[in-house]
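Sequence design from tokenized structure. All designs in this work follow the same two-part layout: the structure record, then the generated sequence. An example of the structure record is given first.
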């Protein structure tokens, strides 16, 4: 089982890639626009402060949602858009994320 810091770093990489993918398509920028950069920083802050990192894989599997409502809506839009497209741009990362998420949901009985 990976260390808490390794899990946290992987979660940060995945969310940053998903937001960057979303921003390139929706905002037509080469690098994240200020709004998307702020969302990346916010997601990283939430990950850094997560007390459940040892027992969960990704925020989507957590029973406690610590995102503010406005940021939660933004990250949902990002995930809805980027999730399916990650298979094309980052296939290994996407498949690993999918497998780990499904395993975690099965462990939680959901």
């Amino acid at each position: 089982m990976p260390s808490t810091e390794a899990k946290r770093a992987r979660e940060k990489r995945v969310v940053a890639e998903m937001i960057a993918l979303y921003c390139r398509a929706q905002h037509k920028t080469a690098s994240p626009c200020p709004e998307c950069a702020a969302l990346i920083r916010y997601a990283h802050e939430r990950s850094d402060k997560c007390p459940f990192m040892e027992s969960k894989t990704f925020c989507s599997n957590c029973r406690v949602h610590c995102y503010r409502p406005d940021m939660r809506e933004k990250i949902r839009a990002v995930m809805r858009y980027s999730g399916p497209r990650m298979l094309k741009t980052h296939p290994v990362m996407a498949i690993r994320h999918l497998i780990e998420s499904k395993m975690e949901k099965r462990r939680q009985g959901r």
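Helices lie at 4-26, 34-48, 69-89, 91-108. We note this feature because it recurs in several other targets discussed in the main text.
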